[in-house]
Amino acid sequence: MQAFASQAALALDHARLFEEQIEKERLERELDIARSVQERLLPRRLPEIDGLALAAGSTPAREVGGDYYDFTRLDDGRLAFIIADVSGKGTQAAFYMAEMQGLFHSLSRLKPDPTAFLCHANDALRDILEDGTFVTALYGLIDPQEGTLTLARAGHCPAALAREGDAPRLLRPDGMGLGLAPTVLFKNGLTPERLPLRPGDALALYTDGLVESRSSDTSGSDPGGEEYGYDRLLDALQRHRCEPPAALQDGLLADLRAFTAADAYDDDLTLVVLQWQGADDDDENALRSVPASTNAVASITSEP
User: Fold this and answer.
1) The predicted structure's pLDDT at residue 158
2) What pLDDT is recorded for position 241?
3) Most exposed of 20, 69, 74, 251 (fewest Cβ within 10 Å)?
4) Alpha helices by DSSP H, 2-110
5) Residues 291/95/122/101 CA torsion (nearest 10 deg)
6) Rounded to an integer, what distance in angstroms lies between the CA atom of residue 35 and that of residue 12?
7) Rounded to an integer, what distance in angstroms lies between the CA atom of residue 137 and that of residue 152?
């Protein structure tokens, strides 16, 4: 009887291990699908605009998230751009990321004004997001003829701006996350910001995976490790602001790696750098397009 019980227990253990292996393989397939979707949705070409240099890239985390960034050139010559972060992980986040891509490329042409764009995006997302799921976003327009930036924020990390002669600062116009409230309330909370650009201005857009990355040193007051935070980002941006965008981006990420001493991150880390150098009014071919890296999660750059 005891031998039979032992064999039964062993059989149950084998069945449990088999089920765990099946579940592990299912999750791995799901993550592979989510990563593939994520890579395909990120831009493969960056716009090249006279006077504006760009660098952009996303580093995937151990677990797939919903980071998204994109650019599109409007018919009137302005550049529309977005960086967004979908709450949640896995295939669900990848699905909502695909929705954001579709919304960006359609609405940015139909409703390019930041308030109108975000309000229509909020309407659309409230119809499809599951309860408790939301999207944060920064959406903006750069007018190369006027040399201006218009920026609106929907609960996302503030943009970081460094410019000659001024202390670096955060641009944090008011706005709640997409999908959290009816559009009437959402619109009332939006306060887009418009500012003239100066030659040498460096603007960093990023997801919370950057500023919330933690140091591996847990000997301090925070047992989970100190966060990288906004102050370190601003300091690094100021130190590297005069470098070409690709080098500027590398400098920011090197500063982060030196702080965290980590080889991988728990959250996706996306960083977009825009550097304004001043447009040439005589250049009739100011808007062009250049190929980006074939690896969508690698750093991609475009410099005039």
Assistant:
1) 98
2) 95
3) 20
4) 2-41, 90-110
5) 10
6) 34
7) 8
Contact, 89 vs 63, CB < 8 A? yes
What number is the average pLDDT over the span 37-55? 86
DSSP, residue by residue, 258-302: HHH--SS-SS-EEEEEEEE----TT-TT-EEEEE--SSTTS-EEE
CATH number at residue 87: 3.60.40.10
CB of 44 closer than 8 Å to CB of 52: no
Its domain, for residue 293, covers: 2-302
The predicted-structure confidence for 168-189, as pLDDT tens digits, reads as follows 999 999 999 999 999 999 999 9
Measured between alpha carbons, how far is 155 from 146 in angstroms, rounded to an integer? 28
Sign of CA dihedral 210, 293, 84, 28: negative
Reply yes or no on whether the pLDDT at 90 is more than 80.
Answer: no
Question: Looking up tokens 């991150």, which residue turns up?
Answer: 265
Reading the block at residue 179, the tokens are: 């999908």
Angle, helices 90-110 vs 114-128, to 10°: value is: 140
Please state, in angstroms and rounded to a whole number, the distance separating the CA atoms of residues 295 and 190: 35
Confidence at residue 18, expressed as pLDDT on a 0 to 100 scale: 54
Provide mean pLDDT across the span 196-205: 97
Distance CA 101, CA 82 (A): 10
- Interacting residues of 13 by C-beta distance below 8 A, sequence separation 6+: none
Residue 73, pLDDT above cutoff 50: yes
Please state which of the ranges 140-149, 229-238, 279-288 shows the lowest mean pLDDT.
Answer: 279-288
Q: How many independent structural domains does the chain possess?
A: 1
Listed in sequence order, the residues at least 6 apart from 294 whose beta carbon sits closer than 8 Å to its beta carbon are 44
